[in-house]
Amino acid sequence: xxxxxxxxxxxxxxxxxxxxxxxxxxxxxxxxxxxxxxxxxxxxxxxxxxxxxxxxxxxxxxxxxxxxxxxxxxxxxxxxxxxxxxxxxxxxxxxxxxxxxxxxxxxxxxxxxxx
Amino acid sequence: xxxxxxxxxxxxxxxxxxxxxxxxxxxxxxxxxxxxxxxxxxxxxxxxxxxxxxxxxxxxxxxxxxxxxxxxxxxxxxxxxxxxxxxxxxxxxxxxxxxxxxxxxxxxxxxxxxxxxxxxxxxxxxxxxxxxxxxxxxxxxxxxxxxxxxxxxxxxxxxxxxxxxxxxxxxxxxxxxxxxxxxxxxxxxxxxxxxxxxxxxxxxxxxxxxxxxxxxxxxxxxxxxxxxxxxxxxxxxxxxxxxxxxxxxxxxxxxxxxxxxxxxxxxxxxxxxxxxxxxxxxxxxxxxxxxxxxxxxxxxxxxxxxxxxxxxxxxxxxxxxxxxxxxxxxxxxxxxxxxxxxxxxxxxxxxxxxxxxxxxxxxx
Lengths: 115, 364
Description:
The complex is a heterodimer. By secondary structure, chain A is α/β, with parallel strands linked by helices. Chain A has a single domain (22-112), classed as 2Fe-2S iron-sulphur cluster binding domain, sarcosine oxidase, alpha subunit, N-terminal domain (Ubiquitin-like (UB roll), Roll), CATH 3.10.20. Chain A is built from three helices and seven strands, in the order αββαβββββα. Chain A has helices at residues 5-16, 41-47, 108-113, and strands at residues 23-28, 31-36, 54-55, 62-63, 76-79, 82-86, 96-102. In chain A, strands 1, 2, 3, 4, 5, 6 and 7 form a seven-stranded mixed sheet that branches. In chain A, a hairpin with a 2-residue loop joins strand 1 (23-28) and strand 2 (31-36). Chain A is globular, with a radius of gyration of 15 Å. Chain B is 30% helix and 23% strand. Chain B is an alpha+beta fold. Chain B has helices at 5-16, 33-36, 51-75, 93-108, 122-128, 150-163, 206-209, 268-281, 329-342, and strands at residues 22-24, 40-41, 86-90, 118-121, 138-142, 146-147, 167-169, 176-180, 183-188, 191-195, 198-200, 220-231, 243-245, 250-253, 290-300, 307-310, 317-321. A four-stranded antiparallel sheet of chain B has the order 13-14-12-15. In chain B, strands 3-5-4 form a three-stranded antiparallel sheet. In chain B, strands 8-9-10 form a three-stranded antiparallel sheet, with no helix packed on it. Chain B contains nine helices and 17 strands. In chain B, helix 1 (5-16) packs across helix 9 (329-342) and helix 3 packs across helix 6. Classes of the chains: A alpha/beta, B alpha+beta.
């Protein structure tokens, strides 16, 4: 019933001849980390020993992944400068720059650059 | 009867006056506007065709300060009430003119409770709300408008009732009410209870319950859909009639109205129009993710105004129905509850809200 997402992907990839088990590099708050292609960012962070992904906007309490299926919004992180990304629904990518989500998301920078 | 915001607010006033209160409520699956509402404490558009409603609303906005203070003192819960003034943003000159006409007609009525408001053009709105979009043509502003956190209000009211010794009985839907010489006998699958004084605040359930004591409350559901975004840093310090930022940072978008029976579902048609208008009003909202949408059922009378009525013979029973339970929480808790305790009569101003008005043939 349970098996690594990367294994499932690599099996299907065997048929399509695309990617296999592959190590990806990323950073979390500036620390260098490694994960597997096909894993979610949340799982990759947990596998690297990261438990606190964010601090809540209301009390500042530390939070980490709870449901791991896109419902609880407790695994929010900043990914490549974009805040409040759900780590459990974000596939790990090579050279991702990931940061703790401190409090509420701020969209001022996006607003200024007119994105 | 009714453990939502309306019932709990009135029960607050009763308990504060020293009454022994038992609050009968339905269970978790009840239609509960108290949990799904937009939570404005809103004055500027209320009662423009019924002056006593405007006065009652203004009184409530004023009494909200006392309610919030007592709740904080007694329960330690800050219900995030604030009255920074609210805006109705208009996206066309037609919308501005329509608002203006209504307000002028109202203020020309004799004896109305005047309230302060301003009509603002785009530049003035932009000065006060720098984040508005270019498509905002103008706005109506009233300093009396505010908002609160309805979930904290609900919890705080119920905590207060517990502290004051009131009994809350969930899963106590009432099937029948018998009038007796000195009170009422209420029955349900849970058993029965007797009371000398009965207050119906059962929302949409009032339509079924009021006739059991010779009263009426012909209310029907009016569906409102809501959107909430992820929490974001505070940028909107005033509530708009359709957009507000909660004390916790999420942006609420609301105010749709549909007659859809008892179907509390959402649909992308209405939601997308709401989202589009919101983004025209505040373009920065386009960066935000929506985290939830839901709908709730307003308790709507035929003319949209509240219903308050009472029995004129036999033991005292009252019915209260409104779609603005948050706005009216102040006056329900501070004035109405104590009045029902001390005089067993509705305050004089509420005679304008009798459902007998629905039996008068329309003229003009």
